[in-house]
Amino acid sequence: MKKAAILFTGGKDSCLALMISKKKGFDVKYLLTIIPSSYDSYMYHKPSLILLKAQSKSLGIPLIIQKSKTEKEKEVEDLDKLFEKIKRKVDYIITGGIVSKYQKERIEKIVRKFDLKIFNPLWGMKARDIWKECLRNDFKVILTKICCEGLDKEWLGKRISKKLFENLIGKSRKYGFNLEFEGGDAETTVLDMPLFKEKIEIDSKIKSESLYRHFLIIKKVKKKKKEIRK
Q1: What is the 3-state composition of the chain as percent helix, strand, coil, each rounded to the nearest 5?
Q2: Which domains does the chain have, with CATH numbers?
C-alpha cells in the first residue's frame, strides 16, 4: 500500500480527501495539522485542538501538530518543520485543496524538497459536488467560523442538511461568498463520517468580533458509540 500522511483540519475537505484516499488504496499513517496563532492565516485554518484530538482517536490515526505564527510566507516554514517529522515514514502527502494555487504551490515545493509525492483528490472539483459527496456519505458537517456577509452567527454549530445546503447555495449567489470556503469566508468541521468509529458531540459557545465575524469556540467534546447497521 502507498504510505501517506494527510494535511488535516478536521473540516469537510480534509475528511472527504481522507475517505477518497483510503478507497484508492492509500495507507494513511498520520494526520498532519498546523495550528496558526491567528484566525487570519494566509495558509491555514485554525482548528480546535481538543476536537482534532477527538477526531484522531475516532479515526484511529495518530495526530502530529505544528504550531505556527501568522506571518505571510514565514508560516510556510512551519509546514517544512511538520513534513520534517514524517519525511522518512511516508511516501505521499495528501491534501484537501480545491482551488487555492497559493496554497498548492507552496505545499508542492516542500513536498518536492523532501522527495515525497503529492495526492490532491479534490483539486478542481466544484464546491457543490464536494458538498454533495459529504451529504451523500452522511457526513455531519457544521460551520465553526463565519467571516462573510450573508451568513449570520445562527449558522454556527448547525448540521448542514440537504435543506440547509440549498439555503447556503442561495445565499452564496446573493452575497457572493465561495461555497468551498477556501478564501476564509467560513470554516467547517466534521463530527461524524463513515470512517469515524465514534460520533463526536460538542459543548460550545459563540464568539463574535463584528457583524460579519463569528467563531464557534469548542469547550468540551465527548464521543458517542455509533449504532451498528445491519
Answers
A1: 30, 30, 35
A2: 2-119 (3.40.50.620), 127-225 (3.90.1490.10)
Which residues have C-beta within 8 Å of that of residue 156, sequence separation ≥ 6? 142, 143, 144, 145, 146, 206, 214, 215, 216
Which residues, including other chains, have CB under 8 Å from residue 183's CB and lie 6 or more apart? 100, 177
C-alpha cell at 118: 503529492
Q: What is the distance between the alpha carbons of residues 216 and 208, in angstroms, rounded to a whole number?
A: 9
Q: Which stretches of the chain score pLDDT less than 50? A: 230
Round to whole Å and give the CA distance between 97 and 35.
17
Give the span between the Cα atoms of 73 and 204, in whole angstroms: 32
Per-position DSSP letters for 134-190, written without gaps between them? HHHTT-EEEEEEE-STT--GGGBT-B--HHHHHHHHHHHHHH---TT-TTSSEEEEE
Q: Sheet of 198-210: strands edge to edge?
A: 186-192, 140-146, 213-225, 198-210
What's at 12, amino acid-wise?
Answer: K
| pLDDT of 224 | 87
Question: For 64-98, what is each residue's pLDDT tens digit?
Answer: 999 998 878 888 999 999 999 999 999 999 999 99
CA atoms within 13 A on the CB side of 134: 30
Q: What pLDDT, on the 0 to 100 scale, is given for residue 190?
A: 98
Q: Are 52 and 200 in contact (CB under 8 A)?
A: no
